Amino acid sequence: MLSFYEKELGFNVLEVNFTYYxxxxxxxxxxxxxxxxxxxxxxxKSFKGMTHETWDKETHARVDHRETFKKFKYGLVxxxxxxxxxxxxxxxxxxxxxxxxxxxxxxxxxxxxGDIPLVIEFRNKAWLKEDTFRLLEKKEIGFCIVDEPKLPxxxxxxxxxxxxxxxxRFHGRNPNWFNVPMKVRYDYLLPRGRTEGIRPxxxxxx
Length: 206
Fold this sequence. Notes:
This protein is of the alpha/beta class. Helices cover 28% and strands 16% of the residues.
């Protein structure tokens, strides 16, 4: 299917989502790199332990994920060596709010990634403020623009580039976002039209 995706459908970039559920293995990503052409790129979604399991539910203390970051980056080596890793996408959950500890963790996340380009997706619109964008620009972290249901606390569409990468995710506009199983949450057919208002400073991913 990967070859079909590139050669028949004409895409030249793929967002890898299985890495959210399990840490990537070098064998899997090396195989994917070998099945695509020289100019094909991959975006790898960060493991859930790095974004959704950052606090201990019993002690309410920040979990030390240094070993998790190390294993995650180890799995990316084949894509890095093949120059096919476009960036890492870190999607934080709806319940992740912009308080001091979480802001510090974003900086730590960037430090752990080193030279690997990083894009962050926020699900809660509490992050939609200039302080957020100043931090992202200062740390050269990309902001993930989203098209998703216009529900009160979800992040609205906000075309903004904070790094050399412009990233746009289409989630659909299912109004039952919070009340349906995950497998149908994104069951939505977007109308034909143009994407306006965003001019990435470098490459763009949609």
